[in-house]
Structure formats: structure tokens, C-alpha cells
Design brief:
GO cellular component, one term: cytoplasm
Radius of gyration: 19 Å
CATH topology: Alpha-D-Glucose-1,6-Bisphosphate, Chain A, domain 4
Helix content: 10-25%
CATH class: Alpha Beta
CATH architecture: 2-Layer Sandwich
CATH superfamily: START domain
Function: Catalyzes the transfer of phosphatidylinositol (PI) and phosphatidic acid (PA) between membranes. Binds PA derived from the phospholipase D signaling pathway and among the cellular PA species, preferably binds to the C16:0/16:1 and C16:1/18:1 PA species.
Catalytic activity: a 1,2-diacyl-sn-glycero-3-phosphate(in) = a 1,2-diacyl-sn-glycero-3-phosphate(out); a 1,2-diacyl-sn-glycero-3-phospho-(1D-myo-inositol)(in) = a 1,2-diacyl-sn-glycero-3-phospho-(1D-myo-inositol)(out)
InterPro entries: PI_transfer (IPR001666), PI_transfer_N (IPR055261), START-like_dom_sf (IPR023393)
Organism: Chanos chanos
Number of strands: 8
């Protein structure tokens, strides 16, 4: 098991991001879904928890078969997907990722949001605080993202919001920005396979880091699209996009509706986690470092596993990206 805490600041308030998060995850998932690959929304319903109160539960299937290496596709089911379950009690959320074909693999994310610049070292409960973990600050403006996902319009060093007049984000912006909020994410990755555990868990965290960075960048880059929305309007947008996304990847279930009757039997088991985060299905690749603005270095972008001597599940490499859609919404 490998535990890390990520802290991602944004030039928004926690209340504003409640809308922005739902909008970003829906739009991002739709953009990254195509030709049978992507995110299928299975369920999106209100949920009542005895401890956390009213929330939203979502279940999604993230189809990744074509992203597996050829030798792995020969031994896994033709339709291969990761299951994402999320419970959103904003500003506290839980997300869990599992794969029936890899029972020893799981990701749990617990997320909390506060209006500060990532200065709360005691935001998680006592049990979590006692666990050894690395704290990683992610800079949405100056940290690298996979090259194929780079868009000039989403480069926050040069983006300025017309409706909020926030941006462009200069170096050191977290010390001067007002308003500012922080997304605190406690991420637990498990891959309990001897000989592969350490490398796979480190690689998955690298993928998680890239997905979180991209999703939070887009949430602010798209701020002018969602800042005037009400909760009812963003839920309607979410419903429409989810149905379109399901059809885009070739899934045609009954129309998705956000139910009015809270669910009562879907409480999460095990470690808590965060709302589903955005989907990125391609292998991490990074922008070349500009000469005038050096970027921070990130972890190695690839993971090399030993070639299998037989078609055994233990030697299968993990898919490049879980959907993890700030991400990822998982009912956010």
C-alpha cells in the first residue's frame, strides 16, 4: 500500500468550485470518451449517509481495453473496465476504484476542500494523520502535464477570466491570490502482487498526479463557462452530457435520471476517498521545458514490467489511467 496526500490550490472559493467540479468532470469525461473507450455512467442518485448527511452517489465504468499492451489484451476479457464508485458530501467526498479482473488492485481517495492555500496539516482524521505519507503540492499553472493534453487556451500562465478577472497566474501566485481554495486529497493505492507491488503503486500515483493536475487546470480554464450556473443548471448539464457520453462510447442504457429518492444501502466500505476525477486514458507524456520558464520535474513517465512467461493475471500491467475525472462526477 502506498499513501500520498495531494494539495491542489485554485483561484476560486470552495462554494464556487462546487459547481465547477461537476461541470469539469462531465465535460472532460465526454471529451476523453470515443469509439467504445471512456466513461459510462451507470448510476447517479441522491444518497443519505447517517454521518455525512445528504450527498450524491455515482457509479461509472471506465473502459480501457485498447490501452492495454497487446499481450495483456490476449488474456483479459474483451470488455475490460474499471469500476468507479463515488459518494459526494461536498465539501467532503469519497471515491473508490476497483477492477474485478485484478482483485488485488484498488485506489481509494478521500477529499476535503477548504478556503486556504494548503496550509492545514490536520485536515484528515487522527487515523489518517498517524499514517506515514508524502505531501505533494501541485501547481496548476507551472507543473507539467502530459503533452498531448496541452492546450494554449488552458495554459493558466496566460489565461485570464473575462467574467471574474482572475488570472494570469504568475509564479508565486498562491501567496498573493484572493480568493484561493485548496483541494486536499488523501490517495491510497494497493496492488498486492509480490515482485510488482512497489513499482506498480508508484506508477499509479504518477498517473493520479497527472489526472488531478489536468482536471484542476481545466476547472479554472473553463470558469467563464460555468461560473454563472446554478446547481440545478449544472445538474441538468451533467445529465445531458452523461447521456451523450454513454452513446458516444457505444453504450445505450435507459436515459440517466438524477433520482429524487435518496439511496440508503450504498455506504462505502473500507478507506474513504474522493469524487471521481477526470479520465485520461493515454500514457503520460510531458511538455518540453520552456527556456524562459523552467517547469518542475515530475516522476518518470513510463513503467517497465517484466514480460510474462504465462498468461497470469499477476503479470498484467495496470491500465495507463484509471478515469480517475476531476476525477474525476461520481456524483460530485
Amino acid at each position: 500500500m502506498l499513501l500520498k496526500e495531494y494539495r491542489i490550490c485554485m483561484p476560486l472559493t470552495v462554494e464556487e468550485y462546487r459547481i465547477g467540479q461537476l461541470y469539469m468532470i462531465s465535460k472532460h469525461s465526454h471529451e476523453q470518451s470515443d469509439r467504445g473507450e471512456g466513461v459510462e455512467v451507470v448510476q447517479n442518485e441522491p444518497f443519505e449517509d447517517p454521518v455525512h448527511g445528504s450527498g450524491q452517489f455515482t457509479e461509472k465504468r471506465i473502459y480501457l481495453n485498447s490501452k492495454l499492451p497487446s499481450w495483456a489484451r490476449a488474456v483479459v476479457p474483451r470488455i475490460f473496465y474499471v469500476t468507479e464508485k463515488a459518494w459526494n458530501y461536498y465539501p467532503y467526498t469519497i471515491t473508490e476504484y476497483t477492477c474485478s479482473f485484478l482483485p488485488k488492485f484498488s485506489i481509494h481517495i478521500e477529499t476535503k476542500y477548504e478556503d486556504n492555500k494548503g496550509s492545514n496539516d490536520n485536515i484528515f482524521d487522527c487515523e489518517a494523520k498517524d499514517q506515514e505519507r508524502e505531501v505533494c503540492f501541485l501547481d496548476i499553472a507551472y507543473d507539467e502535464i502530459p503533452e498531448r493534453y496541452y492546450k494554449e487556451s488552458e495554459d493558466l500562465r496566460y489565461f485570464r477570466s473575462e467574467k471574474t478577472s482572475r488570472g494570469m497566474l504568475q509564479e508565486g501566485w498562491r501567496d498573493t491570490q484572493d480568493p484561493i481554495m485548496c483541494s486536499y486529497k488523501l490517495v491510497t493505492v494497493k496492488f498486492e502482487v509480490w515482485g510488482l507491488q512497489t513499482r506498480v503503486e508508484q506508477f499509479v500515483h504518477k498517473v493520479v498526479r497527472d489526472v488531478l493536475l489536468l482536471g484542476h487546470r481545466q476547472a479554472f480554464a473553463w470558469v467563464d463557462e460555468w461560473i454563472d450556473m446554478t446547481m440545478d443548471e449544472v445538474r441538468e448539464f451533467e445529465r445531458t452530457i452523461q447521456e451523450a457520453t454513454n452513446q458516444k462510447i457505444g453504450m445505450f442504457p435507459p436515459s440517466i435520471s438524477i433520482g429524487e429518492t435518496p439511496l440508503s444501502s450504498l455506504a462505502p466500505n473500507g478507506p474513504a476517498s474522493a469524487p471521481s476525477t477526470p479520465l485520461c486514458t493515454d500514457a503520460p507524456e510531458f511538455l518540453s521545458v520552456p527556456k524562459d520558464r523552467p517547469r518542475k520535474k515530475s516522476a518518470p513517465e513510463t513503467l517497465t514490467l517484466p514480460e510474462p512467461v504465462s498468461a497470469e493475471p499477476a503479470s498484467i500491467s495496470v491500465p495507463n489511467h484509471s478515469s480517475l475525472s476531476p476525477t474525476t462526477n461520481q456524483g460530485e
